[in-house]
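Progress note, project year one: complex with nicotinamide-adenine-dinucleotide.
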Amino acid sequence: MSTHQTKALLDAYKNFFPTGVIGSYINGELQSGTGSEISLVNPATGELFLTYKDAGPDLAGNACQAALAGQQLWGALSHAERGRLMQEAGRVLRANIEPIAQLESISAGKPIRDCRGEALRVAEMFEYYAGWTDKLYGNVIPVPSGHLNYTRREPMGVVLQITPWNAPLFTCGWQIAPAICMGNAVLLKPSELTPLSSLVVASLIEKAGIPKGVVNVLAGYGHTIGQAALSQMAIKKVVFVGSPATGRKIASAAALRGIPCVLELGGKSANIVFEDADLDRACVGAQAAIFGSAGQSCVAGSRLLVQRSIYDHFVQMVADGANKIRLGEPTTADTEIGPIQNATQFKHINSMIQLGLKEGAQIVGDTQVAVDQKDGYFVRPTVLKNVTNDMEVARTEIFGPVVVAIPFDTEEDAIKIANDSEFGLAGAVWTKDIGRAFRVSSRVKAGTFWINMYKVINVASPFGGYDASGYGRSSGIDALTEYTQVKSVWVETAANPAQPFGYAPTID
Ligand code: NAD
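Model obtained:
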């Protein structure tokens, strides 16, 4: 165990939880688990940080009871009061950006400058949704009778949110804020590898005055506590962010319970560069698309589609840029890319690079592949050329700083290759031809598409996948509709109803 690094992590955590206990946050209290021991590992060294105990099945039941009671309190407040408290939560989070960012940077292995940005985004999410608490109206429906019919948007009740390790801080704010905006209570199950920032966010929003029990965090494994939470009858909806394989298991479990779910899954997004593009900008964009967050990003531009006339030149430009990216210790100010978050992912990335080479791909330039694991889970940005879209390396999500460059000839060709994927999360086109930009953007199947840019998202704009990348939407007003259900209310208005009980025509 690296005592120096462990102390840094513990100090960052104790800013928020002075006892240093790592457990589940239920009804405003940190509770130690009773299950098996889980290790938190330092991604920058590969050494053990700390251990904590899986929540164990009893805590899932306790958390559900707390959430049910919390939802009663929260739902009874006026919409305006909920908005005021969410605004205050945004203020408290803003006041803690630096300590939250430090904790996330050390524990998740993400560059500190990225973490500061993500902490700010989380504060903005609460501020944005604070303005929505009293603005999602129902409708008055012009029914063909003397009746009044109107709709109400009501909370689901208690929602379960299961999140991954790649952006734990961002993802918890992204899902908690719209859920509580609509009057729900939350049971959040972060990745067992990165639970700390979610615990902190739950405690800070409570400091802002949001009642205990409204947001509860269960720390532990998916197959234990995640499944135990899913089976709780109080859970009325599941929002899952993670891998396609787990997403399907969650959807199956939700279907057996007869409850709805949202799936935010992986991708293999096409970043399409035409010969008429501003190549300098496209090159910077292509690097940001795949190498940002060391490629551990669901929307990563992992397939770089380049028009054949500029293929060699442009791919070399991207590789030259990649070689200059500063890889380093996450908390160092000028680090651009940190390590891969965990050993399993590190092995997966390296095995995918080896597979690509076996399939006939070539590493461009002198890109080094992986740094020795003893020095942490670092992988240098890697550009693979001579890739065709049927190779495994072009089809499987690598989720690391590895881009496959695929040539194309015509616009039709580019669209066909882009759409020849089981995924449909994101994509981009780089061209100066405005007509082409619109044509391509309308024909590539993707939940998010960028023109002459990449990776910009905003809390106000919907986000989600097509095909194997999932279904349902997060962010913006679309997230609010996901976190509500519609009630249709009928009122008899006739002085002398034509039908005995006023219910014609009927449905059986
Ligand atoms: P994962 O599927 O392994 O784990 C995600 C979460 O599911 C974790 O909390 C885990 O503990 C839990 N889990 C695992 N098995 C479970 C089970 N049987 N029952 C209940 N819960 C279970 O994913 P990961 O490796 O943590 O994350 C990487 C993946 O997430 C990538 O595929 C990436 O593309 C995807 N992702 C998608 C988005 C998006 O918005 N579309 C965002 C971030 C990450």
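Residues 162-167, 189-192, 221-223, 226-227, 241-243, 246, 249-250, 264-267, 298, 397, 399, 425, 465, 470 surround nicotinamide-adenine-dinucleotide (CB under 6 Å).
The first helix runs from residue 3 to 14.
No further modelling is planned for this target in the current period.
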